[in-house]
Amino acid sequence: MDIILIIIWILIIAGWFLYKRAKIVYEELESYGIPYEGAINSYWGIIELLLMKRHFFYLIDDQYKKFKGQQIVPAFNLSQRSFMARDAEIIKQITIKDFDSFVNHDQSFNGDIDSLQGKMLFTLVDDEWRNMRNTLSPIFTSSKMKMMFGILSDCASDFMVHYEKKVKETGKLVINSKETFSRFTVDGICSAVLGFKGDCVENEDSELYKLSVRMQPVDIWSTFKFLLFFFFANIYKFFKFQLTTKEIRDFFYNAIVKVMKEREQNGTFRPDVIQLLMQAKKGQLKVQDKENEVNEAELSNFSANIEYDVKAKNTKLTNWTDEHYMAQGFIFFFAGYDTTQTLLQVTTYSLAKNKDVQQKLIDEVDEVVASLGDASISYETLHKMQYLDMVISEALRYWPPASATTRGCNRDYDLKLNNGKVIKMKPGDDVSLPIYSIQHDPKYFEDPEKFDPERFSDERKGSIVDGSYIPFGYGPRVCIGSRFALMEAKLLIFNLLRKFTFEVCDKTPEKFELAPNFANFELKEKIFIELKLRN
Ligand code: HEM
Questions:
Q1: Which of 339, 443, 360 is nearest to 86 (CA)?
Q2: Measured between alpha carbons, how far is 98 from 52 in angstroms, rounded to an integer?
Q3: Which residues participate in heme binding (predicted)?
Q4: Residue with the nearest Cα to atom 41 of ligand 1?
């Protein structure tokens, strides 16, 4: 009985302490007309996350919907002031126009917080980030993507051989789309980035596939560590937690550092990311390869990456260690395979549900196949497929694989609101960009719950407001791997639709509902769809 009383008192005091802290942090916002209620929601939201009651995505979306009409509202963090932008103009301002005041992703990240995660491009800050981004950008230009196109085409062919054999036995096959597409994207990223064949599609017991599953924070302990990493960086640091296990660190050491050394000794060459990382390490990688560059702006809707100048003021910070290169291999793998498999899940599910869209895409695929004769599809031809680009663009709007991203404020900054008031932002403040929510805001996208690729047609795409469509983020800190992801996803959809149609089956869920883990696209009910052999 005494113990229960003590616990109740501890909870009351902790609750009162948190309330007072929220008041100090957010009180100032009330004077700008930003409801204080938002701050309390944030605290309650974090408790729900800790208890694994809801997915992070729903907290963001609820907060976004609750404060209709506001341009900026409080977000979720207990270590620093945190805001959520719910306005395309503000997103544009923060990510592009005033980028120099918002260079980094989040203040809690830095090199010493986690030996591997702290050194990835995603988490590097300021000039260290600028230098690394400049070093790595040449790896993801269209000329380099063309170089890797053959590697990914081979992965897509292996996938097709495997599944054609299976489907032919009965004429149709029900697949667990998350597992099926994860196996493909792990193979793709493994072959194109790490430089060896993954064999996850062919080999059901693949150790690499099992490792990729273990990398996802789905169990309580990993989710808890992730939450500490994001929301209570000081506690995370104090206990010297690491998000990655020794097994994962060893895998990436062997896959990146060891292979780089071996290739250097043996003088072997393969057109993959690891080779480009070796060139980048020696400073031999040039940003432009004009002759082979593809003008993607001419070829597709949103596939083109704008190259921003992110030159560092202090260019001397380039003495990268082996751990830095290992960290880049890790982030390319981690950020690359799960996002792209989510895109494939959403695309195939949406095509199965929207047969008219699927038929229109099949018509385009057939037209391209007829024009190819015996030749294989090229990088340029794939990117010229306009309807495929529209479908993929809509899938990325409908369910963006990354439902939010963040920017940390790195210097005093006046954020002007439409009501004439100015929020005085300080170094250490965070702004989250709610990718899913803004892409589902009827203010920007009419009938947002409808899967409608026509939004991206030549006639209509011009009316999309800048800053409201941001599946790969926005500005100089935009996803570095977007070209790779689009190429991989388009290639597989093209190959699949040559042979199969996607059908809804008994086990296909009516809608997506995310499981209550922290961050990744893990559904309560898995998506099963049927692959049916085309006549
Ligand atoms: C459909 C697939 C993908 C989606 C939707 C996606 C989405 C995103 C988003 C939203 C960001 C944050 C951008 C920002 O804050 O403005 C990001 C960053 C990043 N992504 Fe992706 N991504 C995808 C695939 C990939 C692939 C294939 C790779 C690597 C091969 C990759 C590597 C990265 C890296 C390294 C960053 C950090 C960039 C930086 O901080 O400079 N992503 N991605």
A1: 443
A2: 36
A3: 479
A4: 477
Residues near 425 by Cβ (< 8 Å), separated by ≥ 6?
101, 409, 412, 413, 414, 415, 431
Which segments are annotated as binding site for heme?
Answer: 479
**CB of residue 123 inside a 6 A radius of ligand 1:** no
Strand partners, 416: 422
Instruction: Count CA atoms closer than 13 A to 301's CA, side-chain side.
Output: 27
Q: How far apart are the first and last CA of the chain?
A: 72
Q: Is 329 in the pocket of ligand 1 (CB under 6 A)?
A: no
Q: Is the CB of 331 under 6 A from ligand 1?
A: yes
In three-state secondary structure terms, 408 is strand
DSSP string, 109-138: --TTTSTTGGGSTTT--HHHHHHHHHHHGG
pLDDT tens sequence for the chain (535 residues): 578 888 888 878 877 777 776 666 666 677 777 766 666 666 677 777 777 777 778 888 988 998 888 898 877 666 677 889 999 999 999 999 999 999 998 766 565 666 677 788 998 888 889 988 988 888 888 888 888 999 999 999 999 999 999 998 888 899 999 999 999 999 999 999 888 888 999 999 998 999 888 887 667 777 777 777 766 667 777 777 777 788 888 888 888 888 888 888 888 888 888 888 888 777 777 655 555 555 555 555 554 455 666 666 666 556 778 888 888 988 899 889 999 999 999 999 999 999 999 999 999 999 999 999 888 999 999 999 999 999 999 999 999 999 899 999 999 999 999 988 888 898 988 899 999 999 999 999 999 999 999 999 999 999 999 999 999 999 999 999 999 999 999 999 999 999 999 999 999 999 888 877 656 677 778 899 999 999 7
Residues belonging to the binding site are 479
- Nearest residue by C-alpha to atom 21 in ligand 1: 479
Atom 14 in ligand 1: which residue has the minimum CA distance?
A: 473
How close is the Cα of 266 to the center of ligand 1, in Å?
32
User: Which of these, 339, 350, 437, lies nearest to 394 by C-alpha position?
Assistant: 350
| Residue of minimum CA distance from atom 3 in ligand 1 | 339
258-274 burial, b at 16+ Cβ within 10 Å, e below that, comes to ebbeebeeeeeeeebbb
Ligand 1 neighbour 299 (Cβ under 6 A): no
Taking the CA of residue 485 as reference, the ligand 1 atom at the shortest distance is 27
How many CB atoms sit inside 10 A of residue 250's CB? 11
Size of the chain in residues: 535
Q: Which of 189, 432, 479, 480 to mutate to test the pocket of ligand 1 (most atoms within 8 A of CB)?
A: 479
Q: Please give the DSSP secondary-structure letter assigned to residue 503.
A: E
Contact by Cβ (8 Å): 29, 60? no
**343 C-alpha to center of ligand 1: Å?**
13
Question: How far apart, in whole angstroms, are the C-alpha atoms of residue 423 and residue 439?
Answer: 25
What is the DSSP secondary-structure string of 257-307? IIHHHHHHHHT---SSHHHHHHHHHTT---S--GGG---HHHH-SS-PPPP
